[in-house]
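sorry for the late reply, my laptop died twice this morning and i had to redo everyting from scratch. anyway the thing you sent over, i finally got around to it. pasting the sequence first so we're on the same page, its 484 residues, then the predicted structure underneath. double check i copied it right bc i was rushing
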Amino acid sequence: MRPKIQFLENTLIERIIAEAKEILSTLGVEINNPAILSLLSDHSAKVDIEKERVFLHSNLVDKALSTTPQSFRLYDTLGNETNNFSKNNVHFTPGSAAINILDSNTKKIRKPTTEDYINYVKVVSQLPHLASQSTAFIPADVYEKISDSYRLFLSLLYGEKPIVTGAFTAESFHVMKNLQLAVRGSKEALREKPLTIFSCCPTAPLKWSYATSQNLIDCAKYSIPVEFISMPLSGFVAPVTLTGTLIQHTAETLSGIVIGQLTNPGTPILYGGSPAIFDVRYETTPMGAIETMMIDCAYNEIGKYLDLPTQAYISLSDSKQLDAQAGLESGIGATLAALAGINNISGPGMLDFESCQSLEKLVLDNEICGMVSRLIEGINPKEDFPAISLFTELLDEKHLLIADHTRRYLRDEHFFPGPVIDRANRSRWIEEGEKTLFDRAQGEVEKLIKSYQPSQLSDEIKNELIQLMEREAQRFGQEKLPKR
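ok and here's the structure:
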C-alpha cells in the first residue's frame, strides 16, 4: 500500500471550484494582451476592452478542462522518456530562476556566473533522484535581455535531462523555441517528445501580464507543456485563510487553462503554483512555512480532482545557509509533496525565499528525494509469508547477513544514501576528519564536477545551438558570450 496524505474532502474541493468559477464569471480576470482578449471574445466570453477585463462563464471553463490532457510525458535531449506525469507518479526538479548562488568557498550569497551555471548542469546530470533540470539561476555575466535563452542554451549544451524553464519577456520565447527545435529537428518531433516545461505565472490577484500571457499562447501553438504558477500570498494579495487562498489559486489557474486550451486544445499542462503565506512580522513570503506546504498539497488535490497532472514549488528553504533549518524545511516539504502525489516537485537546491541556489544543498536534497521516493513505495511483502523458514534460519545462524532472502531484497528494501549523509559511527567519523554536512556536500560537488561526462548530443546540434545563441546575443549588443 502506498502511503498518502489528504487535506481536503471532496465536498470542500467542489465548493472551492464552484467559488472560483463564480469569481471568474462575476469579477473576471484582467488580461493585458489584445490578442487574447479577442480570442476569448470570439469564444463567447464577456470582455471589457477598456479595462482589459474578461468574464469567463462556467461553460467556457468546463470546455477548456474537457480538452486538457490528463497526463503527458517528458523526454531528454536524446529522446528517452524521463518523466511520466500521470496518476501519483512523483518527479523532482531543482528550483528555478534564482538570482543568487551560495558560494562554495566563502559560504556567502553572491551573483552567479556562466561557470557556476555550467557546474550546476554538470552536477544535476549525475544526481539520480532529480528527473529533470531547471533553468535554476540567472548568470550575471550576460546581458539581461538574453538571460532567459542563455540559461536554456547552457542546459541543452551541457546536460541531457529535460528542462523546466520560462521567460521573463515575450521576445525570449522565439529563440528558446528555436533552441528546442535544433535539438528535436522539427515542430512535429518536439510535439511528439516534449523537451521542456515552461512556467507561466499569473499576477495576484487575478491578472495576466502581456509577457506571461503571450508566453502561454506561444507555448500552446507549439504544444510545449506549460506549468501554471499562481502565486497568491495569504494575508497580503490573497485572503488570509488557506481556503480563501485556494479559491484564488483555483480561479487564477483555471483562467490560464482557458487561455491555453482555446489557443490549442490538448496543450499539455501541469496544475501548479508557488503560493505562500505572508509573514507580517518580517514582510516575507516563507516557502518553508507549514501553511505554505499545506496550500501546495491542497491545490494538488484540487488538480487531481480535475484529472490534471500537478506541480508545486515545495521542498525548499528560507534559510540563508545549508543548516538545520534548510534541512528540516526541505525534508518536510519533500515528504508532504510525495505523500500528496504531486507529479512535479520543484525546489531542491533553493534557499532564501526562492532567490538562491546552492550546489551543496542540491546534492543533499537529492538524498532527501531518494529517501521520500523510498517512502512512497510503502511496505510490501517479499517472500515474507510463511515466515517460519526465515526465523528458523535466524535462530540457527544467529544473523541473516548473508541469507539468500537478504541478498535478494536488500537493495530493494533499504535505501542507501551517498556520502553526504553521515551514517558512520563516531570513531570512524573522527578518523575520517570530523567532516561537517557542508564539508561532505562540498566534496561531493567537487567530485561530480570532475566526473562529468559531456552530453551525447551530436557536434552538429551543439554547433547549431552555439550559433543560435551567439546570434541572439549579438542582436542585443553582446558580441561575445562568456568563455565556456
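Residues 92 and 181 are 25 Å apart (CA to CA).
thats about all i looked at so far, will dig more tmrw
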